[in-house]
Amino acid sequence: MNIVIVGMGEVGRHISGVLVGENHNVVIVDLNEQALSAAEETIDAMVLKGHGANLDTLREANAGTADLFVAVSDNSEANMLAAIRAKKLGATKTIARVSDPAYFESHRGIVAGMMGIDLVINPQALIALEMHKIVRSINAVAVEDFADNRIEMIQLPVEDVTLAINRPLRDVKLPSNTLIAALIRNHELLVPGGDDAILPGDEILAVGRIDQIPQVEKLFKRERRKFTKRVVIVGGSLVGKNLAAALAEDGIEVLLIDKDRDRCVELSHQLQDVVILHGDGTDVHLLEEERMDHIDAFVAVSGEDEVNLMASLLAKDLGADRVVAMVHKPDYGPIIERLGIDSFLSPRLEVAKQVLKYVRAGEVVGITPILEGQGEFLEFIAPTDARIVGKPLKDVDFPKGANICAVVSQRGALVPSGEYVIEPGDRVVVFTIPKNRRAVEKAFQKPRFGIL
């Protein structure tokens, strides 16, 4: 696939590195010589100095023949103009990162078809939606939805208080229409077989029909409460505002803390059902007064990583049950895990994840990386005559290190058994390690010249 990427910030560098690693032909465009030099040292891609929205630059980058054009600089207007012009030149698909909320009528985070751009991504709205998922499933490390929110993946830590550990997976009675797609052990991802056992300290990736996932949480003693009652948010950023509004709509009591008095006054008019408190989220006395040990979740989403980390650590130390931090620098990830913060999200990585989902091959309609790319969930629409179609799954030569997790069809959403027969048009969710993706894709591709 021929791909042009405009903007060599952290989002652009991450996307470029992943796509080059997957053997795509990538052209990188940026005005900053230092950013281009750094990219050239680590990424095997063509680099081009120039303004990404300039027509001459776009022509020189061959944007008109690109299968995918991605504009992810820090300038919303430049990204939109670049994507619009690339589309007019002939680019097959275009994506623009747009941070200014003035361009959006909703808080969905992703909009298709805006001004002729195939996909427009709002990082602030996107991160708020992802944090809302985590707060909703309060015991999870991460939550992902597939197949139009009919299938859910939840990442759960495992302790030694459940009967599901220290026994072969084939002997673990999971709720119907669920399965364990993978284990995380010592930060390494494992795709288990029936003889493998879950050990204390592992994390599981459980996949299933969305109404059955709470039963998995119950099995692993991580049962979600009937109601998340109280959440404290530090930071009146757009992320904080959107998250507070979403939680308030769920009937949750929300306290939002911000140290900017004018911003607090503004938010108090915009968020009628949210308590706004002028104060410093890193003030231990303030947090003590707000009884961190009596809240269900603490979320730090200020614009400063250091503030978010400090506030999260203080809240955790004061007894907060669940702590989530927004961190702009993805390199902080390993440190955050060691500090004991339950979950963290990076707007830049979330944008990158959405872009990578859109890089489709064959009949793939979605790609969701897990654990910084160690594993990934693929969504397929099964085509007529593909090898996966028309026979029991147990008779399909499916690659090891990959699991068919769920199927959504006219018959409903389910986790298939070995006797299940996939039909053309079924939507199929597969978990795999990246090196097996091509083999998995091959099972879903239409035959060429009658042969696969």
UniProtKB/TrEMBL annotation:
Stretches assigned to the RCK C-terminal domain: 141-222, 365-446
A Pfam family hit: TrkA_C
GO cellular component: plasma membrane
Entry GO MF terms: potassium ion transmembrane transporter activity
Entry keyword set: Ion transport, NAD, Potassium, Potassium transport, Transport
Keyword Nucleus attached: no
InterPro entries per the UniProt record, alphabetical: K_uptake_TrkA, NAD(P)-bd_dom_sf, RCK_C, RCK_C_sf, RCK_N, Trk_Ktr_HKT_K-transport
Positions of the RCK N-terminal domain: 1-121, 228-346
PANTHER family in alphabetical order: POTASSIUM CHANNEL PROTEIN 2-RELATED-RELATED, TRK SYSTEM POTASSIUM UPTAKE PROTEIN TRKA
Name of this protein: Trk system potassium uptake protein TrkA
Source species of the chain: Persicimonas caeni
